[in-house]
């Protein structure tokens, strides 16, 4: 048999054993034009159908009056003046809306990246101290802090907290308060506390952190309870400004009261979003890992890097919160619609003498174009909802969930399996 035949049979054998070695066919995305032209689903047509129909009916009335001999017309110098103003406003409106959409996508992508990095670092870098280290508890006559299985469980709960952060951010941006959502079921750690509507208050002497019983019987030491933080609100909706206590400014109030903030000693007057609770618990876990010597492989610099990732997660959540809580000013949107309507109502009056009945389709096309641009801008300016044009936050969270659960279930942790592999060649 020739060398060519031998190489060919060997190649066929390798590809049959390892399917990943087979050459992949490139699937080019087909560029569709006509299908998108006649597409209704996913377009803006349904959103602007009635406003465009209204302008079409108005153009029809003008054309019918012209056909019956009534000369209702405007000079052509009006339309160019309005078209410049309307064009500038529409460009700014569309650009600002897409900036909000793109900034929301970038911020959520940064949160996803931080969760991936933090999950990997916790899973790999958090480890029991080496047994030959001089200052370990075993050298001092004490039992280890945690066993390997207990530490793995704590790390698994830490990764679940990291995974719960983007889920909580998604619900928080959508105004979906509480923990009674189906996607929290297998994401939040099982020992994550569910506080009621009132919450609880801590006494002056109870200022230390609480711990649960994930410890060995001989040592009596414990790890933090993932959920007994300082939160007094996790399931209640966030208070609106209308529900805040009455306030007055000393410079503007009379002589009766000089109070600016009304203090209340009850926990039900405070609130905190769920993502900040989760970030707080992650920071407490990192502090626990560092205090108990479980981050000696990375040292203070590595611990600071992990805390920086948590801080970046909160920063990007705040950026998305700014987008969700800062809509386009209503006066700007109203003025834009008024200008577009004025322009579209003036358009048939200037075209009817020259075009006659053709004014109707031309006005319809122009109205569809202008109102479509404004409709798209209005649809994407709040990118965190459930509309088809909004960001697919559910899919982003589910993809991240698959990745983190894969780390927990299949990838080795810490120093496990780092001694290389046997390539079958023997020692040199």
TrEMBL record:
Cytoplasm in keyword set: no
Ranges for region Disordered: 209-251
Top-level taxon of origin: Eukaryota
Annotated InterPro entries: YneE/VCCN1/2-like
Feature: compositional bias, Polar residues: 209-222, 242-251
Family annotation (Pfam families): Bestrophin_2
Compartments, as annotated in UniProt: Membrane
GO molecular function: chloride channel activity
Main subcellular location: membrane
GO cellular component, one term: membrane
Membrane topology: Multi-pass membrane protein
Transmembrane residue ranges: 48-66, 72-92, 330-349, 355-373
Assigned keywords, A-Z: Ion transport, Membrane, Transmembrane, Transmembrane helix, Transport
Name by which UniProt lists this protein: Bestrophin, RFP-TM, chloride channel-domain-containing protein
Organism name: Lentinula detonsa
